[in-house]
Write a structure and sequence with these properties.
Elements lengths: L8 H10 L1 H35 L9 E2 L11 E2 L1 H71 L2
Antiparallel strand pairs: 1-2
Helix pairs in contact: 2-3
Length: 152
């Protein structure tokens, strides 16, 4: 009896690395890191000044005090401004990513898909037309040959 050898740890690791989704994930992380600089520049250079024109650029100083005295490091402070700033930063970043990357890419892919379907539709029409012509030729040949077969 031959006994099958189980794959070793190294073979399993190589198989894991060679799977497509691992490579796709690595590419996505690298592209995401590069794209982070673009998003941060748009938020810092355009969005934050617009928000700063309406209110303040830095929300970190807004807080509430839960104890009787909150001078310096004493007392219990709720830094709700930091939380609000982080939430706004997330929403702004998500909006920039959606409107500058996701939406245009979705529209582009929809156009490409529509072109592909239109090309396939035209190809099918041509094929159907050729098929109909061939059927007509066959029917003509059968009609021409038909009476000759009936005679003895």
């Amino acid at each position: 009896m031959s006994e099958k050898k189980e794959p070793g740890v190294w073979d399993g690791f190589k198989a894991f690395l060679m799977r497509g989704n691992v490579v796709d994930l690595a590419v996505a992380v690298v592209i995401g890191a590069a794209f982070t600089n673009i998003v941060n520049a748009v938020v810092k250079g355009i969005i934050n000044p617009l928000v700063g024109a309406i209110g303040t650029k830095n929300l970190d100083h807004y807080s509430s005090c839960l104890s009787s005295s909150c001078e310096g490091e004493q007392g219990i402070q709720i830094l709700w401004g930091s939380v609000l700033g982080a939430a706004l930063s997330f929403v702004i970043t998500a909006a920039v990513v959606y409107f500058l990357m996701v939406l245009p890419m979705a529209k582009y892919l929809a156009r490409v898909e529509a072109r592909r379907k239109a090309k396939e539709g035209a190809h099918e029409v041509i094929e159907v037309t050729e098929l109909e012509v061939l059927k007509e030729i066959r029917d003509e040949l059968v009609a021409q040959r038909g009476p000759a077969r009936d005679q003895p």
